[in-house]
Amino acid sequence: MTELQALMKAGAFLGHRTSRWNPRMAKYIYARRNGVHILDLVQTVQCLDQARAFVKKLANQGGSVLFLGTSRHAAGPIMAAAARSNSFYVNQRWLGGMFTNWSTMRLCVHRLTYLNQCGEDGTFTTLPKREEAALRRQHARLKKYLGGLCGMEQLPNAVIVTGQSSDSHALAECRRSNIPTIGILDSDGDPTSVDLVIPANDDSAASLDYILTELTYCLSTGSR
Question: Which CATH homologous superfamily contains domain 3-98+155-222?
Fold first, then answer.
C-alpha cells in the first residue's frame, strides 16, 4: 500500500464543511465535495516528508519533542505517540506560562514527581486524613495537567501539535520561546501559526495515529 493509499484509508483527506474553513489553508485544498473541503494528499505526503526529515535530524542531535493536543479527538493519539517515542506531552488544558514561565512550572513538575513517590511508597496513608485528602486532590490535579511533563528539566526542542485551533495560546508561547512547531492542520487551521504544516484531518483518530506513528518512528530511529 502506498502512503497516499494509507492516508486515504485513514480519512486524512477529509476537511471541514466549506462554511468552516480558514482561507489561508486554500493552497492545501484539492476540491469541494458535498459541502466539504477535500485536502490535497499529494501535498500531505510532501509535507510529511519534510516533517520526518526535521524530526529525524532533531533526534540525531539528541533533541527532545513535546506532543500537544488538547481536543477530545487528539488526547488519546497524543499520549500514545509520546509513550512510543519516550517523549513529553500535554493532552489536557494548556496552563498559561507552561513555557514562558517555565522556571515556576518546573517547580510544579518537581512537586508532582514528589507526590508520585508519596503515592508509591505509602507516605499518604501515614498522614492525618484531612492532610492526606488535600494532598491527594493536589496530586490528582497536577497529574491531570502536568503528568506528561514528568522528567522534563528544560524546554523541548520542538513541539508537534494537533487541533491547532484549540491550542493557540500554546503556539503563542512556542513562538515567544523560539521553539519550532510542526502542526497537523485541518481545513480550518492557520498555517502561519506553525513552522511546518502537515495538512490532514485532525478529527480522525486514524488520521492522527498514522501521521504521529510516522513521526515517532523517525524520533526512535533517529536517536539510535
Answer: Glucose-6-phosphate isomerase like protein; domain 1 (3.40.50.10490)
Query: What pLDDT was estimated at residue 223?
Result: 56
CA 196 to chain centre: 14
Contact predicate 10/203, CB 8 Å = no
Domains of the chain by residue range: 3-98+155-222, 102-149
pTM above 0.85?
A: yes
Asked if residue 139 lies in contact with residue 162, where contact means CB atoms within 8 angstroms, the answer is no
Coil, helix or strand at residue 109: helix
CATH topology of domain 102-149: Helix Hairpins (1.10.287)
| Distance in angstroms (rounded) separating the CA atoms of residues 86 and 89 | 10
Q: Which residues 6+ apart lie within 8 Å of 70 measured at CB? A: 90, 91, 92, 93, 94, 163, 166, 167
Q: Looking at this protein, which amino acid is placed at residue 157?
A: N
pLDDT tens by residue, 180-215: 999 999 999 999 999 999 999 998 899 999 999 999
The C-alpha atoms of residue 189 and residue 186 are separated, in whole angstroms, by 5
Q: Fill in the amino acid letter for 16.
A: H
C-alpha closest to that of 53 among 196, 192, 194, 185 = 196
